[in-house]
Write a structure and sequence with these properties.
single chain; about 900 residues; alpha+beta; 8-stranded antiparallel sheet; 6-stranded mixed sheet
């Protein structure tokens, strides 16, 4: 909009005699190169103005026609935190599809919705967070240890799979226009970052050179060199003693010099402050800011750069010319997004708001959810189920969970289907479906629910009225009001879409309306808040924390009657730091555990849906249940209360189907021995319940594959803090897993024949590998063809095997296809002690099939042959 106004101004000016000598500045001339336009714009800015543009919340500069811009946006698996949008399966679930074509299609849809939402926001004068076109996704860190809570955001444990998925995602986001980016993608967190979450602000990750280049770097290199990602986010932690956001070797030497990256670097939020406050690498904020910018970190998510960079210039720690380099990179991105050009010149600016959250996008989310489901066990072909069963008992803490569907870093679906709803929708009208939650996710006792709009109302609408004040005493007129629908979220503040919300802002918030309960009895209400709060029911204070400086959880009981409405008011004061607030409720007058077993005891089949949600595993969380710590896990077992319920259900003698929900591996050893059918659902997005029902009842043949190893116990692993790869992931793990990387069953069977590989090849040559795959079963299905390389004669330690090719294909019964892979010298190379890639002479094993060699189930096969490499050559791009 502002670009149009500017253009009209110049057209009008040129038509008037008084403006005959006036000319538009070069930076507003679309006919000039972006480089010239950026140089011109930056040359007109003062030092203070330049620094003001280096924060995630960049202020407007009216005299230069620069609108305010918030760089912070998220789209891990759909446009996040900006209201309604299509919610796709969580990233780890997308990795389980092993489908790079789907990944590219999905990312293109996400960027379409991003453009639609952005331009609608600009038309309404909304420049707040989560409305921009610079997205801090994907997360391509290696999921090296199942205890890491943020592993759900990644594409798994393998560098090749992560790289292929990351490249497809980045390309889909950024688009293929030769002039403009659709959006800017930001692979993160560069470069060696995967927990522990509670220690991330002061942790030093240490690896050997081979692990650094062979495990942690390949996906970043692929996203930069192949997909041309225009932004990268540096991590909180140190690597080998250097803060990742102040590391010349990581950023300048490797990323920029070696890989040719010419985009901008953004810090993780607060990472620049960590340089002096937590890592103690520098003593002061100006020193930390100067180090970060000189190292190549252009954009500070946080507030250190302003005013610390101004002081750093005065002290001679950095020059204005060095700051100019970063500012030019940032404005180059904004110009490449078309922000200073007439909208009619920018093809993506024509995307209407109606392209957000469409039926076609919902169908794609359903497709992705179907393709992500992994069938882990199916003894005696227990699945698929019959739709004409008399009674199905659906039990478990995530069977009807909205939170489970969406994972973390998600948008808000306009509609969604839980597993319970999906099963109800699927079966015939003569089938009774009964449901009981049975237990909490991780604690014993009464069941805890997140308070949401189902029980709340204001003036006839679902939810509560929200009033926001730019002070801490709720005085004056609110600057923002809305009827907040209170989605089922662990953070009411984030869920409300409040403009102007950031770590530094001081706000006070008030929600009010009425509450009604589903049954008469005693309720325990719990408030979790980061700052001060007060909860009143019918004018009586039920819970209050007036002295809280760092977060607290408080509970109290109240008797409420069904059919009555009660006035509810929740007041919250946010002072400093990230805001956090939520209410949970428990009904105290029933034993949910025994009631669930009783309900299930006369059913034909029990479908238990349980595991984890993003309320247990995630980013730097306050979770203190047994087995969980700060967002990470200390063990990988199914929570004890859930295992007890599963055992009690099994003891009824009724057949049990176990559906696991999680963003990481679960050690379900008892279930693997006793439960006949096990399905891994992940966090499947808005259509997860429909996808699950399609698989359970045979309307979709599952073909997902594990992107991570499912271990039997953390006792099989090195310490969590150890970043060396020995003993981790399928590439270096020599023990027996519960379920292997690449594993997944089908309702049909596949066979592999005619594997063709040259007997010998010269070092430096490409090697073609062909194989025939046939569906030998009675139903159609997808197969995931996987190619693994094993170097039998390496001169240095190398992986046991490495994935170096993948292809998901569809085959009708009896149909066969020939698949061809091309192995490049890089695919066959190893990393030397000094960090170079070398293709050595020697013997290699090439294995192709539907699973990791040696772990193939009965539904697929693996074939292998030998390859001899003559000579040796260092790999150079």
């Amino acid at each position: 909009m502002r670009s149009i106004i500017t253009l009209l101004f110049f057209i009008l000016c040129f038509s008037l005699p008084a403006c005959e000598k006036a000319a538009p500045p070069d930076y507003l001339n679309p006919e000039l190169s972006i480089e010239k336009r950026v140089d011109d714009l930056v040359s007109r800015m003062t030092l203070e103005e330049k620094v003001s543009q280096m924060l995630d919340q960049a202020v407007a500069i009216p005299r230069l026609n620069i609108p305010e811009y918030n760089w912070w946006n998220e789209c891990l698996h759909g446009v996040a935190r900006a209201g309604e949008a299509t919610v796709f399966p969580q990233a780890i679930a997308l990795a389980a599809t092993w489908n790079t074509d789907l990944m590219g299609e999905l990312a293109d849809v996400i960027s379409t919705e991003a453009r639609a939402k952005h331009h609608e926001a600009v038309r309404n004068g909304d420049f707040s967070r989560y409305k921009g076109l610079t997205f801090w996704s994907p997360n391509i860190n290696i999921f090296r240890d199942p205890r890491w809570g943020r592993g759900q955001e990644t594409y798994g444990e393998d560098p090749y799979l992560t790289g292929r998925m990351g490249v497809a995602f980045v390309k889909g986001l950024q688009g293929d226009d030769p002039t403009y980016f659709k959006v800017v993608a930001t692979p993160k967190h560069y470069a060696v970052h995967s927990g522990p979450e509670p220690d991330r602000h002061h942790f030093d990750a240490v690896t050997n050179v081979r692990d650094f280049y062979d495990t942690y770097m390949p996906a970043f290199e692929a996203c930069v060199r192949e997909a041309d990602a225009y932004s990268v986010m540096c991590a909180y932690n140190r690597y080998m003693g250097e803060a990742c956001c102040g590391a010349p070797r990581l950023i300048q030497e490797i990323l920029r010099d070696d890989w040719g990256f010419d985009g901008y670097i953004v810090s993780d939020c607060g990472a620049v402050r960590d340089i002096h406050e937590n890592h103690k690498i520098k003593k002061t904020a100006p020193e930390a800011a100067a180090l970060a910018v000189k190292s190549g970190t252009d954009l500070n998510c946080g507030s250190v750069y302003n005013p610390a960079l101004l002081e750093a210039v005065k002290k001679g720690l950095i020059t204005e010319a060095e700051i100019d380099v970063s500012v030019k990179r940032l404005f180059t991105a904004r110009f490449k997004l078309g922000m200073f050009d007439p909208p009619e010149m920018v093809p993506y600016a024509q995307i209407p708001y109606s392209e957000n959250d469409t039926e076609a996008h919902r169908r794609l989310s359903l497709r992705a959810a179907r393709e992500s489901i992994v069938l882990l066990k199916n003894s005696d072909n227990r699945l698929p189920l019959k739709k004409e069963l008399k009674k199905i008992a659906v039990i478990g803490p995530t069977a009807d969970s909205y939170e489970m569907l969406i994972g973390n870093y998600s948008g808000t679906p306009s509609t969604y289907v839980t597993p319970l709803e999906g099963i109800k929708n699927k079966v015939s009208g003569n089938t009774e479906v009964v449901y009981e939650q049975g237990c909490n996710l991780a604690k014993t006792g009464p069941i805890t629910h997140t308070l949401s709009s189902e029980m709340l109302s204001f003036d006839g609408a679902k939810g509560l009225k929200l009033e926001c004040f730019k002070n801490t005493d709720m005085t004056g007129e609110p600057y923002f009001t809305k009827v907040d629908e209170i989605p089922r979220t662990e953070n009411w503040v984030y869920g409300a879409g409040i403009p102007g919300l950031n770590r530094e802002s001081e706000l006070s918030l008030r929600w009010h309306g009425t509450i009604s309960v589903p049954q008469t009895g005693d309720y325990n209400l719990t408030v979790k808040g980061n700052d001060n709060y007060r909860l009143t029911i019918d004018g009586n204070v039920l819970l209050e924390d007036a002295d809280n400086d760092g977060g607290s959880t408080r509970s109290n009981h109240i008797h409420l009657e069904k059919g009555k409405t009660y006035e509810l008011k929740l007041e919250y004061v946010k002072k400093q730091g990230w805001p956090g607030l939520s209410i949970e409720w428990e009904f105290m007058n029933v034993d949910p555990f025994n009631h669930a077993v009783e309900v299930a005891s006369d059913s034909d089949v029990i479908v238990y849906v349980g595991g984890l949600t993003a309320q247990l595993e995630g980013e730097e969380m306050r979770v203190d249940y047994d087995g969980f710590k700060g967002g990470d896990r200390t063990n990988i077992q199914l929570p004890e209360v859930q295992l007890d319920l599963l055992k009690a259900l099994h003891a009824t003698g009724k057949p049990v189907v176990l559906v696991l929900t999680s963003g990481s591996a679960l050690a379900v050893n008892w279930a693997n021995e006793h439960i006949p059918a096990i399905v891994q659902l992940w966090y499947p997005g808005e259509e997860g319940g429909t996808a699950l029902a399609d698989v359970l009842f045979g309307d979709y043949n599952p073909a997902g594959r594990l992107p991570v190893t499912f271990y039997k116990s953390v006792d099989q692993l090195p310490p969590f803090e150890d970043y060396n790869m020995t003993g981790r992931t399928y590439r270096y793990f020599e023990d027996e897993p519960l379920y292997a990387f690449g594993y997944g069953l089908s309702y049909t069977t596949f066979n592999y024949t005619d594997l063709t590989v040259p007997e010998r090849a010269e070092a430096g040559d490409n090697v073609d590998v062909t194989v025939r795959v046939v569906n030998t079963g009675a139903v159609a299905g997808d197969e995931v063809v996987q190619l693994y390389v094993r170097d039998r004669e390496a001169s240095v330690p190398v992986p046991i095997r490495s994935l170096q090719g993948l292809k998901r294909i569809h085959l009708e019964p009896g149909e066969e296809k020939e698949i061809t892979f091309t192995l490049t010298p890089k695919n066959l190379s190893l990393v030397t002690d000094d960090g170079r890639r070398l293709l050595e002479s020697g013997d290699f094993e090439i294995a192709v099939g539907g699973a990791l060699p040696g772990t193939e189930p009965a539904t697929t096969a693996v074939v292998s042959t030998d390859l001899k490499i003559d000579g040796e050559a260092f790999y150079v791009d």
